[in-house]
């Protein structure tokens, strides 16, 4: 490993010994010349201004004006000037003064005929002071020829040279790579700031260890990996991992985006790829990070609509540099993308990207750690349980969790609180998931009652169905596009689902529609989203999961994920029309049975359904513990007495029955 600090930070942006050494030399000699040109131009302009008075003098003819004024004694002094071209003129001062300035008036006489040059004896006889003067040819040439060019050059420098320098470091530098080299001193993010992606961290730590101590791995015949591809959903921390690598690595780290390669000029992308690898080879061992590589690494299979020659040339150059004929060791590529399915197969083969690391959504423990990192600079109240917040955010990415913490801080600041409390985290979670409460949306009594019975039906059916998640909150306050919500809080992350759990989910989704049918005798459009989700789940059970007792364990239909244009464009169904009718019948049967189960549950709990709905109309929001108590006992839980009411009244002679106040209670915090 190279420990030379001058070699580790050669980029102009970085500090260190390399940057100071580069500043010692002249970086722009043209800039110094331009300054001298401008100073000279200013001097000549000042000279012209001071000599302007002679140009503004009164112009006289030699005969008869000048001759008459000399003989009349009106000329005080004069200078006979011989120009470079051989012509002569006379300038001087009159004996009378200017009433405005109090200075002698000036005059100028152009001598057109050589015989009109005044005789010195004649001037002496009339008492005129005179002298002869030769015009300076250098000043004359500069004034007449060089000064305009100097002014034009200065104007071009200030208008165009700086613009070209800022835009592309020169007008002919389109083919130069835009990769920025980062040193450890410029990046404050390390692996301690990354959580929830432990496997990806281990993969990247191994790459960094290889760069630091290559002999440790090479003694057994191992080779350094050529590239690592980070793929995963948006917001999972792929770019953050790359920044952490830059903070941890003690080698040069080049960063560039995939969109920086392709320009409007043909061949620029391939040229920039070659230039980027040249810089990497000059600083080897080093790491090159390409963000959003799918912008340049898309498959060369053109499909419908033709190909993209410029992007394909850039991709070909990238393939050749990563593992071509003239490949050198010591340059590791780390790339990030959200769409690994559209990348070219030649780019993904071993030898180019030896490792493909999936950066998935964080699980429960990972979400807890991510929340702990994002709340380090937040003043949290002691009642905030980050694990409880993590339980309520399944499917959240790291960016979503950061947004949740920020929303909670804003909510706490809006109500002038000194710390972020659990209610702020809950409200922020609901706001991120379902939208902000629309308290301005006014319900009439009929709609409010309908929504209350709909949500109460969901809550009772979910509570009475086996293997469903615990209830967390039931509300009839509109959020986003929903008029109400019944929220569940998963106890843990689940990777597989049983048939019984899926049927329980279907029954819970049908609870709102079943309650409307039982109470009002008709159904409304309020269950539109429930029906859509239930139909999608039932179709997946039949066509993908093989959970149909009639059709058996078989997959029906092609993959319905997002496909790259041109791939599998001529897909056809892998089942007959008769099977399609059987699939539709099986889906309808599953949905109808779930609907009937929900109706049976709510018919048996008809009185509790009314009690829960009326309570929702009164309070608008109920927590899960209150809902469970109401379903079990048919009434609301007794309100906790105040501190004054909890003090026992001891009769004389009776022992105290109060518990030790220092002992922690076992009640539910909510």
Automatic annotation (TrEMBL):
Name of the molecule in the record: ATP-dependent zinc metalloprotease FtsH
Region (Disordered): 1-25, 623-670
Subunit structure: Homohexamer.
EC supergroup of this enzyme: hydrolase
Subcellular compartments: Cell membrane; Membrane
Active site (UniProt): 455
Cofactor: Zn(2+)
Residues that, per the record, bind ATP: 232-239
Domain of life: Bacteria
Note on cofactor: Binds 1 zinc ion per subunit.
Cellular component GO terms held in the UniProt record: plasma membrane
Family matches, as SUPFAM superfamilies: FtsH protease domain-like (SSF140990), P-loop containing nucleoside triphosphate hydrolases (SSF52540)
Stretches of the chain forming a coiled coil according to its record: 592-619
Source organism of this protein record: Kiritimatiella glycovorans
NCBIfam families reported in the protein's UniProt record: FtsH_fam (TIGR01241)
Membrane topology listed for this record: Multi-pass membrane protein
HAMAP family xrefs: FtsH
Transmembrane parts of this sequence: 30-50, 138-160
GO biological process, one term: proteolysis
Domain AAA+ ATPase positions: 224-363
